[in-house]
Amino acid sequence: MGIINITPDSFYSPSRKQNAEEMLKQAEQMVNDGAKILDIGGASSRPGAEELNATEEIERILPAIEHIKKHYPQIWISIDTYRVVVAKQAVAAGADIVNDISSGLFDDDMISTVAQLNVPYIAMHNRGTAQTMHQNPSYKNVTEEVITELRILVDNCQKTGINDLILDPGFGFAKNVEHNFELLNNMAQLRILGKPILAGISRKSMIYKSLKTDAIHALNGSTALHMVALQQGANILRVHDVKEAVECIELFHRFDSEHTGLHRILTVRDLTLFGMAAIIGAGIFSTIGSACFNGGPAVIWLFVGIAVTCGFSALCYAEMASRIPVAGSAYTYSYTTFGELIAWIIGWDLIMEYAIGNVTVAISWSGNLTTFLHQIGIDLPAFLSKSFLEVKNAHKAFELAIAKKEEISAYTKSMHELWLHAPHIGSLPIILNLPAFLITVIITSLVYIGIKESRTVSNAMVVFKVLVVLIVVIIGAFYVQPSNWVPFAPNGMSGVLKGTSAVFFAYIGFDALATTAEECKNPQRDLPRGMLYSLIIATALYIAAALVLTGMVHYSSLNNEAFLANAFLQRGINWIGGIIAFSALIATASVLLVFQLGQPRIWMSMSRDGLLPKKFAEIHPRFKTPKFSTIMTGLLVGIPALFMDAAFVTDMCSIGTLFAFALVCAGIMILQHRKDLAKPKFKVPYINSRFGIPLLLAVILYLLFHKNAEGVISCLYLLSTLGIVNWIRFIVWLIIGMVIYFAYGKRNSKLAKSQEAANS
């Protein structure tokens, strides 16, 4: 942002332009040097400057705006004023942004006026009046007080209807030199507010007073502090010297690859299709069969209940996405509302949703591939297409059934035979799920190459699999036998609830869209729509598919990996069975793709905050994707997929996701009712149940009358159904995460370093 002062008394004399010819010449130079925005001011705000009346200010700036718009229509113009009447006429003349040094303090109607004008608003932190703001400013902790006051300002602007808000910490305004340097050193903390940050440091007294010179000779100092501001997260530099600032930005991008930026190409259609890519496939083609086996036809009510739960959570994700349009999903949202510790916990927890969840999808893809190849006469060696733990657990079940003289299923017998006759190294059988590993490598490579390529492939796969699901529902409806729906709930409610993990796993995916915020053209508008659209469409397809599936065949025959294709094979519809088997390959691959997109971007956000090594935030200079994080995600999914049991990782994934959903819903409650957002203490003590049950009842009664509490309550209920074994695994996982946080993350976080610097 280049500064053009149409004043006779600005603190930096070369920026003063008093006629159209001088102004246009400076504008031309700035545009050629690389300025994207020109900030035009008609009244000086330097200490001791005489107050200018509004009429004279308008007479100065209107011709400048009109001339620049005429000659450089592509350039954005910012009007630097704190007066409503000036802002109105400037926008009418062609100004695109209102830059207010007072953030509404000097004119009470400014914020509401900007909302009506529907233009971006640069709001600067300031105190006092134009005449008193420079007189003995006082702070106990300048960074904390600036953040607190800006947070109140953000809430006020959003309530008034300002959608595009840029925050300026206000260097030099109601702050002395020491305050300015302390604030600059801690400016990264302002990222918690979730808004772009503008740094206006150029040639200010904090530079020339420190260097014992003047504004004329403060160029080198300005360039040095501009680099510091960029490292602290500044998104816009407001400068007198555009060429030098542009060069500073280019060198910074070379130096720090995490700021080279991701490609912003995703639209609401792309986001809806990405959501459907994640949701439709993980359920219809992999886990719904086991849920139907346990609950019978009544499993549709579980779909409805979990859809409502996800709907509550989706609404909260949607509001969070519109408030905080940056990558990171629940991690970023938790950082904003709960602080660093809880953000770390949720970031660690999300590994269970995305990375571990993808192990399940990769294993499912392998099962679908085996079925498809078998139908065309190709049989893969069983020891190279089954997971080690799956076969081992079946072998143990076989031996236990023999000891108890119980009936043994054909599947268990086949796994026992595989355990005995697979190639061995010593006493250890060689059993690897090679297809699961290979599909992970292929999808990770695609994700690594770029978001545009991933979008194209994903959209094509979604269109194909939705068409197949519609064909399945329509054709299957003609083979429904109502007698298969009797009894509707053969195993009662307990049987229905046994499918909680499987059905909930089928819905996982819409939240992955939030990780792509920095790749959306308009994240604040499109992310909420994409989440809700994909969830609604998927729910309708799930319920229709479940009804048709349980009506075509008896529910007891659905406990197998390729249950959908087998259901049609049982009814003698061989031709559609092959299509379903192939579609299952496409569907599960698309799920894998979306989750492989999500996990690296969470790690990237955590690395930006210092909680993970900086390498996790590196962006590929050509492909514009998180390069190291993507590779690590591929390894984290691909290697376990060789050995793990799908049932184990499905339950782990579901409990992790519900935990994330509950925190996001709770975060909305905090955002709506707390202004300071201080970090809450996190403590989970043991409480005797005779005291705990009344306390829990009181909490539930409070939540029932609290807006946005529905998501928290429904998530907590579903969490309670997942069983003690899953909770033990989850707690162990969190303990491992806490060890890593206190050993590395806490000591290296940017927030901790900023606080240490402030304290020193």
UniProtKB/TrEMBL annotation:
It comes from the Eukaryota. Coiled coil: none annotated. It is a multi-pass membrane protein. It catalyses: 6-hydroxymethyl-7,8-dihydropterin + ATP = (7,8-dihydropterin-6-yl)methyl diphosphate + AMP + H(+). The keyword Glycoprotein does not apply. PROSITE patterns: DHPS_2 (PS00793), PTERIN_BINDING (PS50972). GO terms for biological process: folic acid-containing compound biosynthetic process. Residues 1-250 form the Pterin-binding domain. Keywords: Membrane, Transmembrane, Transmembrane helix, Transport. One of its GO terms (cellular component) is membrane. The chain crosses the membrane at residues 271-293, 299-318, 330-351, 430-450, 462-480, 492-510, 531-555, 575-598, 628-649, 655-672, 684-705, 717-744. The keyword Membrane applies. This is Pterin-binding domain-containing protein. It comes from Darwinula stevensoni.
